């Protein structure tokens, strides 16, 4: 009888980033440019690595998978957010909301593990260079990649399992630009305090384990690099600094969103924008502007393209 008194919520209302019409127009233009930059930047990495044989190495195999994940991570909510800037009523269906939460945790968990795989790759390349290609064989690379997706899927499925049987009877207003799991759980028609703790613990534990693995691996790598010749150390530090920058940009918002539960939604909104939009934009910038091999490969492809035009 009690459940019969609850009306079923079929859609949620997203409040977005701002109620100001002028700001929404500004956001529409700005985020459209940013999203185009995300797609083009990550496509540039995909095309460069695919068509330049010098980059057919384990490191760049993992890098193009990171670019794919970044593009999808930026696409699960950003296009809808951009369109919603032009709408007065910003709604999303229950299944659309569920899909956003599922893919966010799937891709987020997968990217965490992929960053760990990239740290393992750097450890082998720097600490065991003579055995690098033997250790990081195609079989090992595929295993690392599949393991990353498996962890992401298990993590996301465990999070979504909490949602399946929750009753929603209103209000149905989500104070964000996409369906974020902690915010949606709070709208349920029953006490979800314990459930919120489980969600935060699940995401926080995965983030903490991956972060500690990365921290230990990079400490070992840095210790090894410091005892090498100056020339080799400079190149190793250059590659390593790009990885550490990406890891910092990815994990910092995760820590604040899931490990440090803010009560102010405005802070969460800023961090969510950074996590889902600006990190996928900055990754290709970091890996192209700070990576001499990628820049050299882009020049080779451009030169081949120009020469082929002259030949025709």
UniProtKB/TrEMBL annotation:
Classification via CDD domains: 7tmA_OR4-like (cd15226)
Membrane topology of this protein: Multi-pass membrane protein
Keyword Transmembrane helix: yes
Domain G-protein coupled receptors family 1 profile positions: 41-287
Organism per entry: Canis lupus dingo (dingo)
Transmembrane segments: 25-47, 59-78, 98-120, 140-158, 204-225, 237-260, 272-290
InterPro entries: GPCR_Rhodpsn (IPR000276), GPCR_Rhodpsn_7TM (IPR017452), Olfact_rcpt (IPR000725), Olfactory_Receptors (IPR050427)
A molecular-function term among this protein's GO annotations: olfactory receptor activity
Gene3D superfamilies with a match to the protein in the record: Rhodopsin 7-helix transmembrane proteins (1.20.1070.10)
Cell compartment(s), UniProt: Cell membrane; Membrane
Keywords: Cell membrane, Disulfide bond, G-protein coupled receptor, Membrane, Olfaction, Receptor, Sensory transduction, Transducer, Transmembrane, Transmembrane helix
Pfam family, one: 7tm_4
Zinc-finger among keywords: no
PROSITE patterns: G_PROTEIN_RECEP_F1_1, G_PROTEIN_RECEP_F1_2
Primary role: Putative odorant or sperm cell receptor.
CC terms in the record's Gene Ontology section: plasma membrane
Family classification: Belongs to the G-protein coupled receptor 1 family.
Protein name, as recorded: Olfactory receptor
